[in-house]
What we know:
The complex is a heterodimer of chains A (319) and B (428). Chain A has 319 residues and is of the alpha/beta class. Chain A folds into two domains: 33-284, P-loop containing nucleotide triphosphate hydrolases (Rossmann fold, 3-Layer(aba) Sandwich); 287-319. Chain A contains eleven helices and ten strands. The radius of gyration of chain A is 23 Å and the shape is globular. With 428 residues, chain B is an all-alpha fold. Chain B folds into two domains: 12-96, no CATH class; 107-423, Orthogonal Bundle (ABC transporter involved in vitamin B12 uptake, BtuC). Chain B is built from 18 helices and six strands. Chain B has helices spanning 21-34, 42-58, 66-92, 100-112, 114-132, 140-156, 162-184, 189-207, 213-216, 227-231, 248-272, 275-285, 287-292, 297-323, 333-346, 353-375, 390-411, 420-426; strands at 18-19, 63-64, 222-223, 239-240, 245-246, 325-326. In chain B, a hairpin with a 4-residue loop joins strand 4 and strand 5 (245-246). The longest helix of chain B has 27 residues, at 66-92. The A-B interface holds A 1, 4, 81, 83, 102-105, 107-108, 112-115, 119-124, 128, 131-133, 135, 137, 139-142, 145-146, 148, 151, 155, 178, 180-181, 194-195, 197-198 and B 267, 270-271, 274-279, 281-282, 284-286, 288-297, 299, 303, 421-422, 425, 428. Chain B: It is found in: Cell membrane.
Amino acid sequence: MSADTEPARPSAAAPRPDLSGLEPRPGVPKPDPIVKGDGIRRTFGGLAAVDVEHIEIQRGVITALIGPNGAGKTTLFNLLTGFDMPDSGEWSFNGTSLQRVAPYKVARLGMVRTFQLTKVLAKLTVIENMRLGATGQRGEKFWSAALPFLWRSQEESNTRRADDLLARFKLDAKREDFAGSLSGGQRKLLEMARALMVDPELIMLDEPMAGVNPALKQSLLGHVKSLRDEGRTVLFVEHDMDMVRDISDWVIVMAQGQIVAEGTPSEVMSNPAVIDAYLGAHHDTDLTELDEHELESEAEAELDHETSTASDEHRKDAP
Amino acid sequence: MSATTHEPTTAPALRPKRTHPAAIASAVLGVAGLTLTAGIASPFALWKGKQAITAIEADPDDYEGRGLANLGRVLGLLGTVLLVTWLVLGLFTNVLPVDIGQVFKTALNQALGPNAIVFALAAIGLNVHFGYTGLLNFGQAGFMAVGAYGLAVSVVTFDIGFWPAVGISLLAPVLLAILLGVPTLRLRADYLAIATIATAEILRLTFGSVEMSDTLGGSNGLTGYAGTFQELNPFESRLDLGFVAFSARDTWSVLVGWSMVAICLLIVWALMRSPWGRVLRSIREDEDAVRSLGKNVFAYKMQALVLGGVFGGLAGLFLALKQASVVPTDYSTNVTFFAYTALLIGGAARVLGPVVGAMIFWFLISGLGSFLGQATSGIDPLVPTWIMDNTQSSLVRFIATGLGLMLLMIFRPQGIFGDRREIAIDER
């Protein structure tokens, strides 16, 4: 195996770039992009799952990638991290082209992802899961593996780092448990903590909130913010609008494989195209504030319409 | 051995009653105890029956099958009486035409002898492949064959010295692993299984082919390459320790063989406790997760395939040395499956698992073979000929061993050394 390159440690909190002045249009150039992509296209049969003309991800901020189901968000994740091959397109990370670069090399460059369906290593303990994340381990090379004196000190420092992270993510009580025995939310936490063991510059979270209970959600939000505050770049896919509004600095909206809108959360939420395509008419109002009678009558009218058309069809079917 | 734990039942009112699995197991074991296994399965039938009754009484709304469980218990009791009777009669009297002491001696001889060593080595290789890395190699016989033929062909056909030939025999499985791994390790696991089993068969048929019999010996195989190994033998007389006895030649083979096993175990132990071993176990769990953390999964799988293949090659090399001849039929696919059986008996992903498994496997196979052989031979055999005759008895032992494997999977799916908690995770 080639020598592992230690990813550059993110420099601690430079002043956060202000994106509010940027023009809110798809593919807008950012002041300091960490990821740049052009003409990325991936088709499954006749369906273009991803067809992105231009995308830039700003360094040092939290970018949210939103869009309805099937919009191609996860496919774009897979393409950017090398887990899937595009039909065409090119993209770069920190200026390094990532075309046809294997996933493990992408991770070593400092671009680490998590998965929508968490991938914890069920039959390894939590701490072993964490230790696996550390890069450049001497003990992971075949010829030095059998000689513990070559890797013991490194293993110890990795374990200390892992324990710190476990404490930060409140998983220290589960240290010696099998990862397979954790709950869904704890698995999300473990996956995020494990990704941090790689010390990534860009961390890509695929639906970090899915299946997490509300109490844990708040602390997860805090964790994601703290990633940015230590100087990392975060890109995440999410359906939870509260989370998007709460923590993201920039939002990219995808629909049917394309980027349809970009902007700060408030800009995107007020963009009529986005509202129609994705959020629905009442996205910004609390349900209790709406006129209940109006809603009820709307619903009834809809029901009446449906039953009448259904019975119409029924009549048509009858001989 | 821990009893099966009960999952907490959810919403009992909504679930139809079902027969408790232990009740079925008990009845099956009871029948098996009185027929095929000459009572050996019967105590287990008793035990499972009791377990089923307890479970049914604790949860009468959920489970039924009391009748089956009782049947299992009655049959189990009868079988246990039968088992105890023939054991006592066989060991302490001459009433039975079967010498139980001899049966145990034969069984122990095989469990500690050269055959067990061959399968222990092959199973250690499979443990690295399947147990730790999750690579489904169904062609371990192929790795054994190239190890054995690497030695024999080099010495007999090409007439290079014995020691360089041993080197070639160790190198051949490395090449085979790389050849197999490059196209298949990037694919899904089942493709490796198909590719390896096919390769093992291709190798066996090639080694036995008429066209290449000048070089490879054809179906008669090759002999006359193990002289150096036999000359090194320091033993001059037969070794008899009372419970086991080996000829001078076998004593030498057994000494060398168990030393090889010990070295292999040491290597596996040292590697699997290291971060390298941790990466392998992680690949077994989820390779994409390992990829996402910056590990070159392909390289690790290749290293595992090579390492396990070399252990397989050592098994072949040892087989070739101990019997001083290589014959293609020794490397058929059932060798692979016997090695897998040994691995599963002992417990996969445990250092000692494959060795203990191989010993138990050979103990059972040869003990049953000896017992059934004696029980069906003579003018007035213990087992009447209308049940089975002498030629059939050598096959019945495999049926009984299969049954034993089933028992193991029911009572201890993780094998002898396995960790029950790991199996519990699979059930979630």
